[in-house]
Amino acid sequence: MRITTIRHGETDWNVEKRAQGSKDIALNQTGLNQAERLAERLAKEPCDIIYSSDLLRAKKTAEIINSRHHVELITSTHLRESGFGEFEGQVLSDPKVSAKFSAFMDKRAPAYFTQVHRYLEEILRVGHENIFIVGHHGTVRAIICYLLKIPVEHRGVYIIGNTAIHTFEMTNDGKFAMVLENDTAHLN
Fold this sequence. Notes:
By secondary structure, the protein is an alpha/beta fold. Helix content is 38%, strand content 19%. The protein has one domain: 3-Layer(aba) Sandwich (Rossmann fold).
């Protein structure tokens, strides 16, 4: 089994360093271009099914990828970014906001990761061999932690760029190994 996680393309709020959370923000032109380059990069990769967050930025990225694969595309609220409450729309480069946001996420992350992990378990039970999952910064981090058995407290170790690819392959002992990490070579 091979799982490829993909973060959505760029949005204006990414550029402005605003917390998006569950706000339904669309890709900007750069994000659309990134998704096209990503789709070209993944065109020859085997893919049996694509799962995606139902938020515009992820769904559009998934649709562009699927224009090369033509497989079933399933969208789900379970792959959405975590809700950021009062922080949605705020600029995270402000040190006061950043510190409060970090504390908020430390409390919010365990419940959010559990939600993503439960849905990922459903995906794995279906048993497709080559799975693409398109989501958000938080979604990809949650999947990494699940597949590599990393505690939620260590989630910050992983950086996930716009349209970054992380690929995992199941080993002979039934565990997953990361074979590609935060790959954005298609953007160069």
